[in-house]
Amino acid sequence: MTDQEEQELRAELAKFKEEHRDLDDAIYALEALPMPDHLQIKRLKKRKLHLRDRIQEIEDILLPDITA
User: Fold this and answer.
1) Which of 11, 40, 57, 66 is 20 to 30 A from 20 (CA-CA)?
2) Which residue has the higher pLDDT, 21 or 67?
């Protein structure tokens, strides 16, 4: 992997982590409403899970699990 590719992956990773945190805040705010929109919450949670999987994939690329 080139330095450029690694920098791009790290930038993407940071963006996804920020979006993941933002989704946490949005879900919390929606759940705190007197009449929460459960469909919207479900969609946000699904997006959050997708981001978590993508974050894990990128971290696995950047920090491969090497067992000796």
Assistant:
1) 66
2) 21
Q: What is the pLDDT of residues 33-55, one digit of tens each?
A: 999 999 999 999 999 999 999 99
58: Cβ contacts below 8 Å, ≥ 6 apart: 9, 12, 13, 16
Query: Which tokens in the block code for residue 56?
Result: 């894990």
Instruction: Quote the CA–CA distance of 3 and 28 in Å, as a whole number.
Output: 38
The C-alpha atoms of residue 25 and residue 61 are separated, in whole angstroms, by 28
Tokens of 35: 């009449």
| Separation CA 42–CA 20 (nearest Å) | 14
What is the per-residue DSSP string for 27-44?
HHHHHTSSS--HHHHHHH
